[in-house]
Amino acid sequence: MPRRNRVDPWGDHHATEARGMFTGNRGCLVDDNGDVVRHHRGSLWITCLTEYRDWQHPLAAPRTWTPLFFLDDAVALAAGHRPCGLCRRADYLAYRAAVTVGQGRTDLLAEGSSGSGRGGTADRPVLAAELNRRLAQERLRRGRGPDRAADRILSIGQLDELPVGAVIVDPDRGEPQLLTRDHVQPFGFGGWGSPSPRPVGVAVEILTPPTSIVALANGFEPMLHATATATATALDVGVDSGSPELLGHGGNVSPSPGKERFGR
């Protein structure tokens, strides 16, 4: 029986046999029985490698962080996560540098949407705490419960101006779609679906939070699933997010020393 630990681009959890490239952390989500009872706990939402230093971590233990799994970076970013500053140090630094370069750049988003330039200067790197604060403000309206898709904050932008790796909402079907250089592709837990030509001259709703849009537009290269067409970096990597009781040692990953090790 698969666990409810796979995340869709809206940020909600699902039980599915499909596999993902990354794991991640948004606090303890389970009760004493190991059942998912909350959507998140805290503002630290990070995306981690599935293997790191042979560290192990239980998949559904109470009173510690609960591993989640993502198809790829595009899904994780759309859900509101950022790269971990420990196990994905180079990716975190690239993300932070891209946000720093793009501070104050709200031209990708319609007036009235939540832009990413809130303080700071281009010569000072944005700190992890600031990234966490921005993403927390951009993800969700007030609400409660384990399913929060209805509470997502969406921005509006011209599709022509959006970067590769952004996830938008299909205006006809209301479903998440990945933007590649020349195509859009619908989301599936097993991979991105059949590509269609990327429309031109249209405004769309954007799932990926503004801070991550700025990162993608200013040099951060997401790791995309092999089913994504062209551009960025596509890898055919997967890990089992279901039956193993521990994360690590060839299956999945993360540290046993405690979630603070990943809180960078």
Distance between the termini: 33 Å
| Structure annotation, total helices | 4
Question: Low-confidence stretches at least 5 residues in length (pLDDT < 50)?
Answer: 105-122, 234-264
* Largest sheet entry: 6 strands, antiparallel
SSE order, one letter for each helix or strand? EEEEEEHEHHEEEEEEHEEE
Gyration radius (Cα, Å) is 17 Å
Mean pLDDT: 81
- Tally the beta strands: 16
Descriptive account of the structure:
The protein is built from four helices and 16 strands. With 264 residues, it is α+β, with helices and mostly antiparallel strands. It has one domain. The strands form five sheets. It has a six-stranded antiparallel beta sheet with strand order 8-13-9-10-11-12. The protein has a four-stranded mixed beta sheet with strand order 6-3-4-7. Helix 2 (89-101) packs across helix 4 (210-217). The protein is globular, with a radius of gyration of 17 Å. The chain starts with a strand and ends in a 17-residue tail after the last strand. Mean pLDDT is 81; it is low at 105-122 and 234-264.
